[in-house]
Fold:
Amino acid sequence: MINTILQITKLDPELLNEIKDSFNDLPETEHADGAYRLRKYSRVIADLKELLKGTKVRALIGNEFRQSEQYNKHQGDVTRTFENIDDPFISSEAMRLLVLAFYNACKLSGEHEFDVHQLRIKCEGGATQISPEGWHQDGYDHIAIIGIDRINIIGGEILLSGSKTDAPFFTAILETGTMVILNDNFLWHNARAIQPIEDSEPAWMDVMVFTLRDRT
Structure:
């Protein structure tokens, strides 16, 4: 069997203008990282043939997210509840194109359910960790990390490695429209901290994350 473990896809940044402003409405949460990692979350479903016809992504009922402590030592085995991503966002053309790019890169066919995280990481007065758990895997077969916007920051590069202890072999800034797709069974990921360029101005990084398990 041949496994593709890393791919990079670039969408036209203008295609994401439809959803950019919705990141301004992301709420803080009561979770351990909720004051600086603002988030909404939804579980969604989409079919490749329907996406190709122009049919939009659909949201499923539910707003609880849980990871095993095997993968998340920071907040594993804790059920976290988030506000669902807004319906206009899920049903947007931008979302359809992002999911279509994800499916094509992962060579997915048919219908799949997967998780979508809409995130803003803020930093004020100093460095803020993008990945508080450090080097980790998430327990999925396919992960897409998508750059949406970067405002008044330096840092935030995604880092990929073949193990928890090896030096990263891949480093990249997630500019608007950049989608990094990785096979979580083979790669470990992390990210560098972000910090403001101008300390007196608001500073943040907006990203989306798709996580999907193959059907068994």
Q: What stands out?
A: Helices lie at 17-20, 48-53, 87-90, 93-106.
